[in-house]
């Protein structure tokens, strides 16, 4: 048995806006007469949009209607409709995510998105998506190395580190090709405050209105390349380095030491493919930044792999790497899916081992999801590793029911997400205890943590599994 579901990735970045459509193949990898083991076995990009400059009304405002027009045109050109899609992601990334109307843009696109995740990407999630799109995770596994992907866009440089295919850390710096912008007359018309401060700290004065001089701006880009070398622990951090992280983020840990790198993002296209004749062809310093990275005395000594994607890495990651499928032994009330943007309430393993503690902790934590005395939608997440026998599952069902009275008496389904493969039997036990009078969604094979949000799609594979998107934005916290 195999089934193909269609996905979209939409990336509204600092410099560019683009989308892809892809097909995810779901297949039962188990042999006959055993419990199905259904996984995503293949991911194929079927359509790549044109790459557009992200339309802005001014330096702080995205043109939401123009963005919508771009996306609608690409849907038409691809012959796709929102109802054709089962999953995917719409993300606003880089400096664009800081624009004051980012949420307005997301709301404008919500009708195009269908019933799946629509969310801005924090810098950590963007780092992971771009690294997976660039193939750094696969390279690290194939070569048994620690590989860092540096996704260098217009406003930020997102870094994700994989060791033998496992994510080990993320970070994000305010280093990018469009942090200095140049008009048609060769004058500087925008400088990001952090970039201006970096230049000034090294005795370089640049101001809006100045003529863009290649020699001066090259020196600034060399300083940005220094910061990237420091970020991957190939140079000692200087006094400015801690100020360079987006949203006061954290530096990567010293271990594991990075063996090799890949580059993605718009600047990486120039890095790999060469410079245009005019270094200011894109009205920014992206070309000079690519040159500074390529010629950097330290960075050029780090082994570098060709990225699978460069300027499209984030959108490919969003369209093909955001979705997982649940385990195949699940329980759900018909007609209650899809459901999206569900906040996660996670119980600790310590809580799970003590029924009284479990119930009191769940009761207390659910108060955080009350709004004006009314229970909001929430997903209760547990490991399930301590309740694998029949009797223990019955005990866990009672623990959930007694602790989640606020959900059970409220208007939303009781949603339980378990890592361990017990959702079917746990769901049956809960249904029996509640006399099937409460809508229930009980799925397994999914990991999520406090602070995450999950989307659960319509059942696929003859109703055996559901696609799940976990929006984790806090990898380096």
Automatic annotation (TrEMBL):
<dbReference type="InterPro" id="IPR050696">
    <property type="entry name" value="FtsA/MreB"/>
</dbReference>
<dbReference type="InterPro" id="IPR043129">
    <property type="entry name" value="ATPase_NBD"/>
</dbReference>
<dbReference type="InterPro" id="IPR009377">
    <property type="entry name" value="EutA"/>
</dbReference>
<dbReference type="Pfam" id="PF06277">
    <property type="entry name" value="EutA"/>
</dbReference>
<protein>
    <submittedName>
        <fullName>Ethanolamine ammonia-lyase reactivating factor EutA</fullName>
    </submittedName>
</protein>
């Amino acid at each position: 048995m195999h089934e193909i579901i269609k996905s979209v990735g939409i990336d509204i970045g600092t410099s560019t806006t683009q989308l892809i459509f892809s097909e995810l193949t779901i297949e039962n990898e188990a042999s006959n007469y055993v419990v199905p083991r259904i996984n995503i076995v293949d991911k194929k990009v079927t359509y790549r949009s044109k790459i557009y400059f992200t339309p802005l009304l001014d330096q702080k405002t995205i043109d939401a209607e123009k963005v919508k027009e771009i996306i609608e045109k690409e849907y038409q050109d691809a012959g796709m409709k929102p109802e054709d899609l089962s999953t995917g992601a719409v993300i606003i990334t880089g400096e664009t995510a800081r624009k004051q109307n980012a949420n307005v843009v997301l709301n404008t696109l919500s009708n195009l998105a269908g019933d799946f995740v629509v969310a801005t990407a924090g810098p950590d999630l963007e780092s992971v998506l771009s690294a997976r799109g660039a193939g750094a995770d696969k390279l690290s596994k194939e070569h048994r190395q620690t590989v860092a992907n540096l996704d260098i866009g217009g406003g930020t440089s997102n870094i994700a580190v994989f060791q033998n295919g496992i994510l080990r850390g993320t970070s994000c710096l305010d280093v990018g090709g469009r942090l200095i912008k140049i008009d048609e007359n060769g004058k500087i018309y925008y400088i990001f405050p952090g970039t201006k401060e970096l230049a000034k700290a090294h005795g370089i004065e640049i101001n809006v209105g100045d003529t863009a001089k290649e020699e001066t701006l090259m020196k600034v880009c060399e300083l940005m390349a220094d910061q990237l070398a420091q970020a991957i622990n190939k140079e000692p951090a200087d006094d400015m380095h801690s100020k360079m992280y987006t949203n006061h983020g954290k530096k990567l840990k010293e271990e594991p030491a990075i063996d090799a790198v890949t580059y993605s993002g718009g600047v990486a296209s120039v890095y790999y493919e060469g410079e245009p004749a005019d270094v200011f062809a894109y009205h920014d310093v992206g070309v000079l930044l690519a040159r500074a990275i390529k010629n950097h005395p330290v960075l050029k000594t780090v082994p570098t792999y060709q990225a699978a994607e460069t300027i499209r890495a984030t959108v490919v990651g969003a369209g093909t790497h955001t979705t997982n499928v649940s385990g195949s032994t699940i329980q759900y009330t018909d007609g209650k899916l899809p459901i999206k943007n569900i906040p996660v309430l996670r119980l600790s393993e310590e809580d799970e081992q003590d029924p009284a503690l479990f119930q009191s902790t769940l009761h207390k934590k659910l108060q955080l999801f009350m709004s004006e005395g009314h229970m909001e939608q929430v997903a209760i997440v547990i490991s399930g590793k301590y309740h694998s026998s029949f009797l223990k599952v019955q005990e866990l069902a009672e623990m959930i029911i007694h602790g989640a009275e606020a959900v059970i008496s409220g208007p939303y389904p009781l949603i339980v997400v378990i890592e361990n493969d017990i959702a079917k039997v746990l769901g049956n036990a809960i249904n029996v205890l509640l006399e099937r009078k409460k809508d229930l969604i009980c799925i397994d094979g999914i990991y999520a943590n406090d602070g995450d949000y999950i989307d659960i799609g319509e059942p696929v594979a003859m109703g055996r599994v559901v696609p799940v998107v976990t929006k984790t934005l806090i990898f380096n916290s």
